[in-house]
Amino acid sequence: MKGVIKDIYGKGFFHLFSANSLIHLIEFGSQLFIAWILLADDIGRIKSFQSFAAIAVVISGFGFNTSVLKLCSEKKTSLLEKQALFSSAVKVTLSGSVLVLLIIFISSSFGLISNDSIVNKLFIYYALSVPLVALNNLMIAYYQALKAFKKVSLLLVFARIVHVAIIIFLTYLYGLNGFVLGIIIGFLMSSILLFSKTEFMEGWKIVEAIHYKKNWELAKFAFLGNGVNMITLYLDIFLLNHFIHDAEEFGYYGFALTLIAGLRIVTTTVQQFVTPFFSEFSSNYEQSIKAFKRSNRIFLLVITGTAILAVLTIPFIVKFVFAGKYDSSIFYFQALTLAWLIRSSVSLKGPFLLAYGYMNVNFYNVLIVFVISIIPAWYLINTYGIIGAIYSQLFISILLLLVVQVSFQRIMKKIKTENNK
Questions:
Q1: How many CB atoms lie within 10 A of CB 207?
Q2: Is 114 within a domain?
Q3: What residue ranges of the chain have pLDDT lower than 50?
């Protein structure tokens, strides 16, 4: 165990983990602070902003952060070629962001985002952070592909701490409006910082159609898969924005989801970490299988322990810290933790299939889950409200587990057959 920890540390896992934790601190930690300032109603609105923005970020990036992570981690690719691939992704992200902002502006203006007029009004401004987040994700993926974890961590630590301070300060002064302004300022600051330290202009000059094509061959399924996955993940929020009129109860549910965002830090960080190494080992079937099985065993133990610890301790912490203000969120959090654990148990299978070029499998998996779950989710939420949203999350998580497990076993047999030839 000591050797494994030392090996993980040497590859920069803990540097990446600290940086990734601070990135999610914008969504997680700052909300815990501003929960003292804002009403539960506004916490629900913030969760709506973040859910809609998550979809917008995926559309803006067209999945190119995934293709950059894969293509730029390959040893055979020269540094100049990697810069060109990254540059083409930047150009696509900027173009996609303009299109997305236009759609958001029209949708919000006609009240299509939510039945809450405040959400419709403020999301137009919150959406200005979408291109900044998309570019941040792309640059971080590029550094991960280059295995420059320590450099990324050092670049982001200062920006994220200042970002949280700005959000809390502006929220204290201007309420929900200040929160939105703080989000935009913080991501603008981190984008400028990352771009100033990223060397890619030589690659920018030589971008050709082939670079877009190489990226898109991998990105298309990542784009569609991530898009459908995000819609499925936040389906409850999208539906609640049109079916629920009790803003306070929605706020309690939103606070529970804020706590779940803390648990998701574990899942997303491990996924980002293992992807380049699975890609590097993909040329050696036996080695890659060994790496996957060892990583998956450790990961399952970690998320199970995390879930148990969270269910047992978070209720007491919420009661003590918030003095009863969010006690109504505790049951929601405990039920959603179970859904998170079920969903997360198959999280490493996607990066492993990506390493072997089976990105389309992930897309088909989430598409099947989405198609099957959308009507039950609509019925449950429309009939039972917030409790129906809990039921729908558990249903979707179990369905995802079954679909991914079946498809993974099928693809593993195919990969084994191909490597035995």
A1: 18
A2: yes
A3: 1-5, 8
Query: For the chain, what is the mean pLDDT?
Result: 85
User: Does the residue 421 lie in any domain?
Assistant: no
CA 295-284-141 angle, to 5 degrees, is 60
Whole-number Å distance between alpha carbons of 60 and 138: 11
pLDDT of residue 226: 86
Buried b (16+ CB within 10 A) or exposed e, 227-252: bbbbbbbbbbbbbbbeebeebebbbb
Residues with Cβ within 8 Å of 52's Cβ and at least 6 positions away in sequence, in order, are: 104, 113, 123, 127, 238
Report the distance separating Cα 145 and Cα 138, nearest Å.
11
Residue 153 lies in a domain: yes
DSSP per position, 106-132: HHHHTT-S-S-HHHHHHHHHHGGGHHH
Domain count, the chain: 1
pTM, entire model? 0.83
> Among 109, 38, 34, 43, which Cα is nearest to 247's?
43
How far is 395 from 373, CA to CA, in rounded Å? 8
What is the distance between the alpha carbons of residues 72 and 51, in angstroms, rounded to a whole number? 29
396 within some domain:
yes
The pair of structure tokens assigned to 235 is 């389906």
Rounded Cα gap, residues 384 and 212, in angstroms: 46
Using alpha carbons, select from 280, 263, 1 the residue that is nearest to residue 147: 280
Summarize pLDDT for 149-203 with one digit per residue, the tens. 666 677 777 777 888 889 899 999 999 999 999 999 988 988 888 888 877 888 7
CA dist., res. 123 & res. 348, Å (int) = 33
Burial of 124 (0-12, 13-18, 19+ CB in 10 A): middle
Range of the domain at 400: 2-416
Beta-carbon neighbour count of residue 161 at 10 Å? 12
Strands in 31-83 per DSSP E: none
Q: Comparing C-alpha atoms, which of 233, 153, 242, 226 is closest to residue 399?
A: 233
HSE (CB half, 13 Å, CA atoms) of 146?
21
Residue 375 tokens read as: 């009507």
